[in-house]
Amino acid sequence: MAGPFAGLKVLELGRFIAVPVCGQMLAEGGADVVKVEDLDGDQTRHNGAILPFEGRQFFNKNRGKRSLCVDLHDRDALRAVQAIAAQADIVLANFRPGSAEKLGLDYESVRRSNPRIIYGENTAYGLEGPLAHLAGMDVAVQARTGLAHFSADGPEPFLNPMIDYSTAMLMATAGPTNRSMTTTRTQWLPGRNRVRCCLVGQVSFCSQWQSFRTPCRRSLLSLLPMYSIRAA
Length: 232
Hints:
Layout: E1 9-13, H1 18-28, E2 32-37, E3 49-51, E4 54-55, H2 56-59, E5 66-69, H3 75-87, E6 90-93, H4 99-103, H5 107-113, E7 118-123, H6 138-145, H7 162-173, H8 176-182, E8 194-198, H9 203-206
Parallel strand pairs: 1-2, 1-6, 2-5, 6-7, 7-8
Antiparallel strand pairs: 3-4
């Protein structure tokens, strides 16, 4: 039985958690997802290694996809990725602010070659406002918004990156997949197929789960140090 997203072509230009998890949801629903990685592979390939170049963190967020490892600073490689975007139904991206525009992979650039594209983009603090120029991750957003304070054992970040996962669910349901399932190609309107999600926008939702949190200090130590460490 075909999944609900069978036939959709998805280009994933994302790393870490939010966009890869969204891409995995689409892939598990039957979409053909092509994940673009650096030549050295996605960073999570090296976390919790099970096999050479294959880690638990990577398996957990990238099932069912095809991978394309390229150097986006190489003109030929970049043109190849742009050509995939021109044929895709959905593009998912979480570039640093300004990077997509430099590569010609932002919404406006992709729309010129593919007017009916559904473009889902994730940022830390949105596309407008005083923090829009900042890059950021789940843990940084928790710290800046005060969500990190709701810890059972003190002001430390939620070790389960709930902001990333809730953002992925929003992108996959309220965003590109919902629009693609309820709108025919002949009805798609240019400029209305852009789905914007930001990590800080999920703080109010995630704060509802604070009382259910169980601290686990070592769960993300393979990714980055986030606690005081006694050195002497």
